[in-house]
Write a structure and sequence with these properties.
Helix content: 25-40%
Radius of gyration: 23 Å
Distance between the termini: 30 Å
Strand content: 15-25%
Order of helices and strands: HEEEHHEHEHEEHEEEHEHEH
Structural class: alpha+beta
Strand order of the largest sheet: 5-4-3-2-1-6-7
Shape: globular
Number of strands: 12
Largest sheet: 7 strands, mixed
Length: about 350
């Protein structure tokens, strides 16, 4: 059950963010220069990306823990992994504040600002917050997220003060971050340069552990089909009483590369993994028609998900720049829901 933040919780967050804005951190950091704040276990480090050095959009993106860092690296490595902008944006996991324009805000966000008594004028002045969660459409922060964000921003204020006072130099381009960490023994904050825990996106291979299923897959016959497999994020806000925020459905797609015909597609619920669904679709095809000679994918995430299945069934798994057979279907879906 969703709980909305109180006006006092919002006030504390807005006050902290306003003080940070006065420091103009985007004049010192690029969006790829990460600030890490650690107050506990290493894997719970909170990472901050400062937006606005180019002058277009001011903001601060907060990535929680190693899962959050991996989300940031998906964004950073988007082109190398051949991921669409929509796929990356709607798979982000972060809490972000923006100083944007009035028309960017929802009615709820404008109402919060009015209740707090803030009056903004001009371009890139309206402060608002968004929560990004895979499977869901970007949405306003709930009470728990407002509290966490408030704590993160209080720590960030201290980190930025230390960065200036200590005149820290960080070689960000070599995979380092500015780390602000709490020393439990001394009960004080320490700061300095430190390497990032990892600097490349960590994609997960889908592992099938059902030995009976694997044995059946090894025995399937072959066919000469060439298939295309992909996952598509719809990029639409779907309200459903089951969820405390709007869903953003994903589609798992399987098509015939030669004819361009769509073989099957399934809409995935927010709590479901579209790669798992895609694998199930491919397995269903294999048992009905035999193992295809080749499956084409366009990005490394889908490739990792299908790697074991293709190896077991003797299928050539090929990564290509563009899945021509699925393009028409995907474009039609965008136009229909756009």
């Amino acid at each position: 059950m969703r709980t909305e933040a109180s006006l006092e919780q919002w006030r504390l967050l807005y006050e902290s963010a306003t003080r940070i804005k006065e420091r103009k951190p985007w004049e010192k950091f690029w969006d790829m220069d990460l600030i890490g704040i650690r107050d506990g276990a290493e894997e719970e480090t909170v990472f901050f990306s400062i937006l606005g050095r180019g002058g277009d959009c001011y903001g601060i993106a907060v990535y929680e823990g190693y899962e959050g860092l991996n989300s940031f690296l998906m964004l950073a490595m988007q082109q190398d992994m051949n991921l669409s902008s929509s796929y990356v944006m709607f798979n982000q996991k972060n809490l972000t504040c923006y100083w944007g324009n009035r028309e960017e805000l929802s009615n709820k966000q404008r109402a919060i600002i009015k209740e707090l008594g803030y009056k903004y004028r001009g371009k890139n002045q309206w402060l608002y917050f968004m929560s990004f969660e895979p499977g869901y459409y970007p949405y306003n922060l709930d009470a728990e997220e407002v509290q966490r964000m408030g704590k993160y921003f209080q720590d960030l204020e201290l980190a930025l003060q230390s960065y200036d006072a200590e005149e820290i130099n960080v070689d960000f381009e070599s995979g380092n971050m500015f780390l602000f960490t709490f020393d439990e023994g001394r009960k004080t904050w320490q700061c300095g340069e430190a390497p990032l825990p990892f600097t490349a996106f960590q994609f997960g291979n889908l592992i099938i552990t059902d030995e009976e299923l694997l044995a059946d897959l090894r025995k399937v016959s072959q066919c000469d089909a060439v298939l295309e497999a992909d996952v598509m994020l719809m990029g639409v806000s779907v309200a459903d009483k089951k969820y405390d925020r709007p869903a953003n459905p994903a589609l798992s797609l399987l098509g015939d590369a030669k004819s361009g015909m769509m073989i099957k597609f399934e809409m995935v619920q927010p709590e479901e993994d579209p790669i798992v669904m895609l694998t199930e679709i491919v397995i269903g095809y294999i048992f009905n028609f035999g193992a295809p000679s080749e499956i084409r994918v366009s990005n490394i995430i889908v490739e990792a998900g299908l790697e074991q299945l293709c190896e077991v069934c003797g299928i050539k798994l090929r990564r290509v720049k563009r899945l021509q057979g699925l393009e028409e279907f995907k474009q039609g879906m965008k136009e229909f829901y756009g």
